[in-house]
C-alpha cells in the first residue's frame, strides 16, 4: 500500500487508473531513488593482492624465442536433447503457471461496470493487453545482446592463449618407449597398471624425453599445472631416465669431472621446506629402485659440527644456535658417511644445499649481524667498526669456524626448482639465485647473479627488453608450480626468453573433485565454531558408516587439515581443541618436531608417511590425532592422505595464490574433498567475505 501511495504521488493528480506498464516503470524508478538515498556502507580496505600472471604467453624477447603449449582439455559435457526440441512454439506444451505476487499487484484498478456484460468484456480486454505487454517485454529483453560476465580474477590472471596444434597428439598412457622398462615397472608399482597420465604428465612425456642432440643447448621448461595433478612425476621421470642413460652411455657428451669432495650429484631438486624435500626424495627412490639410481635427501638427523680448537662440539653447536646460524639448517651428513655413498639425485632446500657446497657456517657473519640488528645492538644498516685501545679499526672477533665443503657441483646436469613461485619470491630468491650461479661457475660457464629487484619489476617493454641480458645455464633447467605470479612470469620472459612453457588447461583452478563451502561465524567464540564444524564432519562419517557397514567395526573418522595465518593462532586453536578432547598436531616453522630429521611428526596425515598406526584407540580422536593445525608451511607440494577430505581455512586468505595451495591439499589425484572457508556474513567485514566468495567461485569453475 505504501508503494502504491508513493506511486500515485510520483504520477501526479488525475492518475486514478494505473496501467501495468506504468506500475512496472515507476517501481523501477522508486527502487533507484531508494538506493540513491541510502548512505554508502563503510567497507574495510582490502589488503594488497599478490597478482597471478595474466597469461603465460611469452613477452618481450620471449615472443620470438619462447614457446607455450597448453594441454587439451576434456570434451565438454553435452546434455541430451529435450523432449520438445525441434517443435514449433505453438506445439510445445507447458504446465499452467500461477500468477506471481508482482503480477497480481500489477493488476490495474477499474471502476465498477454498469452491467455484467461490460465487466466481462473489460476484464477480457485488460487480460489481453497485459499479456501482450509481457510478451513485448520478453522479446525486448531477448533482443538485447548478452552481457559478458565479469571474472573477479580477471585482473590477476587470464590463461586465454590458444593451445599449440602439436598438443593434440599427447600420449594417453604410460608406455615403453618412451619410458625405460625398469622405470615403467616402478611407476606401475607405485600408481597401478591402469593409471593414465594427467595433462601435465602427458606434455612432459612428449617434450622432455627427447634425446639431446650434440651441440644443442640444454633444456629449459616451465611445468605449470593445478595442485594434485602429479607434477612430481612429470619432472622426475625424464630426470631419472636421463641420469640412467648418461650413466651407461660411454659416448655421452657430458664429461664426468672428478672431485675430492664426498658428494658429487648429477641432479638437484630444490624444495622450499624440509618436509617436501623428504617426500620428494622418498618418491624418487620408489621410482628408481629397479633402475638402481642413488637418491639422497639433504635432511638427516641433527649432527653437531666438529669443533676445531675452541671447545667441545656441544659448545660449538650452542654458539651456532645462539647466533641464529643453524636454527633452520639442522641437517648435516656425518663424517662417517662421507665418500661411502655416491649420489645421482640430491634433494634439499636452497639454503641447505648452499651450506653443503660452501661449508657449514659459511654465512655466520651475515647472520650474526642480522641477529644483532634485530635485538638492537647495531644501530645502522652497516656494521659499526669496533675501535681498539690504540684507536685503530679492529675486525669483529671470529666466534665460529667454517666447516669444509662436502658437495661438488661440477657434475650437475639437471636442476629442478619445485614450487618455483616460492623459491623465486623475496624470502628465497637470494639463496636460489646464488646456488644456481655457483653451479654455473663450477661447470665453467659463470652467469651474473640477478639483483633482488628483478622479480619486482614490471613487464618489460621493448626499450628495457634490449638492455636485459638473458641467462643461459649450462645444465637442464626445470621449474614447476601450481601458480604463476606476474613477477615470476616477467622474470622468465626477461631472463629466460627461450624457455618452453607447458601448462594444463585447469591452471589457476581448483581440482574438479574439490567442493567449496562457506560458513559463518556465530559471533561468539570462533574456536568453538571450528570445533562444532569438526564434530559435524565426524557425525556425517558416522551416518555414512551406519548405512554402508557390513559388520561390526570401528568408525573411520576423517582427518582434517586446518590452516591459520599466524603461529599464535595455531597454538591457541590447538590448545583449545586439546582441552575439548580433540587431540591434534600443531605445526609451525619453529616446532621442535621438525628438527628430528624425518616426517614422522606427520605420520597418519601424509600419503607416503611412516607406518600406519594400529591398535586400540587408533580411530578415537581423543587418543590419536585426527586434526592437523598449521600455517602455510605445509601448503606447498605435500601429498596428504586420502583420509584428509576436509580443509578448513579459518583465516581470510591473504591472496588467491595462498588459497589455491591451501585448498589443494585435499581433492588430490581425483579424490573427493571439500574446503570450508570461514567468514562473516553480517556486520563489519562481511563485504570482504563476499569478495572472497566471488574469487573462490571463479577459481572453482
UniProtKB/TrEMBL annotation:
What is the recorded name of this protein? RNA helicase
Gene Ontology molecular function: ATP binding; hydrolase activity; nucleic acid binding; RNA helicase activity
Q: Which UniProt keywords apply?
A: ATP-binding, Helicase, Hydrolase, Nucleotide-binding
Biased composition (Basic and acidic residues) is annotated at 130-139
Helicase C-terminal domain segment(s): 529-701
The record's annotation in InterPro entries points to: DEAD/DEAH_box_helicase_dom, Helicase_ATP-bd, Helicase_C-like, P-loop_NTPase
Q: What is its EC number?
A: 3.6.4.13
Query: What residue spans carry the region label Disordered?
Result: 32-169, 379-398
Q: Domain named Helicase ATP-binding: which ranges?
A: 212-502
Ligase as a keyword of this entry, yes or no, is: no
Q: Looking at the record's lineage, which domain of life comes first?
A: Eukaryota
Q: Which PANTHER family match?
A: DEAD-BOX ATP-DEPENDENT RNA HELICASE 50
Provide the reaction this enzyme catalyses.
Answer: ATP + H2O = ADP + phosphate + H(+)
Amino acid at each position: 500500500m505504501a508503494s502504491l501511495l508513493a506511486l500515485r504521488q510520483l504520477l501526479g493528480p488525475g492518475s486514478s487508473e494505473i496501467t501495468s506498464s506504468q506500475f512496472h516503470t515507476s517501481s523501477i524508478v522508486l527502487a533507484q531513488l531508494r538506493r540513491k538515498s541510502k548512505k554508502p556502507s563503510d567497507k574495510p580496505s582490502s589488503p594488497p593482492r599478490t597478482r597471478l600472471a595474466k597469461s603465460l604467453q611469452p613477452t618481450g624477447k620471449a615472443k620470438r624465442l619462447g614457446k607455450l603449449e597448453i594441454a587439451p582439455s576434456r570434451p565438454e559435457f553435452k546434455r541430451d536433447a529435450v523432449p520438445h526440441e525441434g517443435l514449433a512454439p505453438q506445439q510445445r506444451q507447458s504446465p499452467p503457471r500461477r500468477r506471481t505476487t508482482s503480477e497480481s499487484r500489477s493488476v490495474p484498478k477499474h471502476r465498477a461496470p454498469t452491467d455484467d456484460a461490460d465487466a466481462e468484456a473489460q476484464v477480457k480486454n485488460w487480460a489481453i493487453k497485459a499479456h501482450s505487454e509481457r510478451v513485448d517485454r520478453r522479446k525486448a529483453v531477448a533482443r538485447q545482446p548478452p552481457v559478458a560476465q565479469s571474472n573477479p580474477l580477471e585482473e590477476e590472471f587470464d590463461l586465454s592463449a590458444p593451445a599449440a596444434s602439436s598438443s593434440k597428439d599427447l600420449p594417453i598412457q604410460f608406455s615403453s618407449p618412451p619410458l625405460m622398462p625398469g622405470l615403467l615397472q616402478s611407476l606401475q608399482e607405485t600408481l597401478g597398471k591402469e593409471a593414465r597420465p594427467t595433462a601435465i604428465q602427458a606434455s612432459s612425456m612428449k617434450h622432455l624425453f627427447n634425446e639431446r642432440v650434440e651441440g644443442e643447448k640444454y633444456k629449459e621448461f616451465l611445468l605449470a599445472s593445478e595442485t594434485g595433478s602429479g607434477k612430481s612425476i612429470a619432472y622426475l621421470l625424464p630426470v631419472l631416465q636421463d641420469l640412467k642413460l648418461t650413466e651407461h652411455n660411454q659416448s655421452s657428451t657430458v664429461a664426468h669431472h672428478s672431485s675430492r669432495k664426498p658428494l658429487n650429484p648429477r641432479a638437484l631438486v630444490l624444495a622450499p621446506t624440509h618436509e617436501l624435500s623428504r617426500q620428494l626424495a622418498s618418491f624418487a627412490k620408489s621410482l628408481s629402485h629397479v633402475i638402481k639410481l642413488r637418491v639422497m635427501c639433504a635432511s638427516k638427523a641433527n649432527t653437531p659440527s666438529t669443533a676445531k680448537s675452541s671447545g667441545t662440539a656441544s659448545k660449538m653447536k650452542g654458539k651456532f644456535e645462539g647466533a641464529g646460524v643453524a636454527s633452520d639448517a639442522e641437517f648435516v651428513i656425518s663424517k662417517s658417511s662421507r665418500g661411502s655413498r655416491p649420489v645421482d639425485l640430491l634433494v634439499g632446500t636452497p639454503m641447505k644445499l648452499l651450506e653443503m657446497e660452501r661449508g657449514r657456517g659459511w654465512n655466520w657473519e651475515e647472520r650474526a649481524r642480522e641477529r644483532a640488528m634485530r635485538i638492537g645492538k647495531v644501530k645502522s644498516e652497516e656494521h659499526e667498526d669496533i675501535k681498539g685501545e690504540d684507536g685503530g679499526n679492529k675486525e669483529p672477533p671470529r666466534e665460529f669456524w667454517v666447516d669444509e665443503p662436502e658437495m661438488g657441483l661440477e657434475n650437475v646436469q639437471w636442476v629442478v626448482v619445485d614450487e618455483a613461485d616460492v623459491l623465486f619470491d623475496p624470502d628465497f630468491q637470494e639463496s636460489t639465485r646464488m646456488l644456481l650461479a655457483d653451479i654455473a661457475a663450477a661447470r665453467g660457464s659463470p652467469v651474473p647473479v640477478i639483483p633482488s629487484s628483478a622479480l619486482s619489476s614490471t613487464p618489460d617493454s621493448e626499450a628495457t627488453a634490449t638492455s636485459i641480458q638473458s641467462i643461459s645455464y649450462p645444465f637442464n633447467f626445470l621449474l614447476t608450480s601450481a601458480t604463476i605470479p606476474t613477477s615470476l612470469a616477467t622474470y622468465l620472459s626477461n631472463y629466460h626468453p627461450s624457455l618452453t612453457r607447458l601448462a594444463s588447461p585447469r591452471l589457476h583452478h581448483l581440482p574438479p573433485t574439490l567442493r567449496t563451502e562457506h560458513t559463518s561465524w556465530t559471533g561468539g567464540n570462533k574456536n568453538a565454531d571450528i570445533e562444532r564444524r569438526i564434530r559435524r564432519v565426524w557425525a556425517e562419517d558416522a551416518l555414512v558408516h551406519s548405512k554402508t557397514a557390513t559388520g561390526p567395526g570401528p568408525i573411520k573418522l576423517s582427518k582434517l587439515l586446518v590452516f591459520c595465518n599466524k603461529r599464535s593462532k595455531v597454538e591457541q586453536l590447538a590448545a583449545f581443541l586439546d582441552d575439548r578432547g580433540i587431540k591434534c598436531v600443531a605445526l609451525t616453522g619453529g616446532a621442535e618436531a621438525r628438527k628430528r630429521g624425518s616426517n614422522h611428526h606427520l605420520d597418519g596425515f601424509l600419503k607416503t608417511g611412516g607406518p600406519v598406526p594400529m591398535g586400540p584407540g587408533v580411530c578415537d580422536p581423543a587418543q590419536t590425532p585426527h586434526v592437523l593445525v598449521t600455517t602455510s608451511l605445509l601448503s606447498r607440494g605435500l601429498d596428504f592422505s586420502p583420509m584428509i577430505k576436509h580443509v578448513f581455512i579459518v583465516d581470510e586468505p591473504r591472496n588467491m595464490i595462498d588459497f589455491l595451495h591451501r585448498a589443494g591439499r585435499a581433492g588430490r589425484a581425483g579424490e573427493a574433498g571439500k574446503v570450508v572457508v570461514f567468514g562473516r556474513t553480517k556486520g563489519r567485514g562481511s563485504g570482504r567475505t563476499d569478495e572472497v566468495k566471488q574469487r573462490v567461485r571463479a577459481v572453482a569453475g
